[in-house]
Amino acid sequence: MKDHQPTVKPTSEQRETARRKAEDHFSTHDARTEHAKQEIARENAASDAKTARLRALRLAKEEADRTAAQNVESPATVEAKRPKRTTRSTRRRVFRVT
What's the predicted TM-score (pTM) here? Predict the structure, then answer.
């Protein structure tokens, strides 16, 4: 008194349908995965380009600042070029003898 039904083998059409559904599922998954990878690669490339551009700008600014600092005269050099003021006490006094 067994109440189980015998196992029915799927037909070739059923197997083909199941296989096609599985392939569709995996190909869709692969396509989404590939699209996500391409999007990440584009974002990374944009980020790398931006970083390179900003680095080049920073280096150019640092170089400009360095050359500007070399061209500016130091305060000691500026004072050395200025004529010194003389005060009354440092002027030479000339006495006349009559």
Answer: 0.49
CA distance 90 to 25: 101
Residue 83 lies in a domain: no
38 in any annotated domain: yes
Evaluate whether residue 86 is within a structural domain. no
Task: Say how many domains are in the chain.
Answer: 1
**Domain region containing 62:** 12-73
- Reduced 3-state DSSP string for the chain: CCCCCCCCCCCHHHHHHHHHHHHHHHHHHHHHHHHHHHHHHHHHHHHHHHHHHHHHHHHHHHHHHHHHHHHCCCHHHHHHHCCCCCCHHHCCCCCCCC
Query: φ, ψ for residue 22 (rounded to 5)?
Result: -65, -45
Q: Is residue 96 part of a domain?
A: no
Could you give the maximum distance between any two Cα atoms of the chain, in Å? Answer: 161
- Kindly report, residue by residue over 26-48, the tens digit of the pLDDT: 999 999 999 999 999 999 999 99
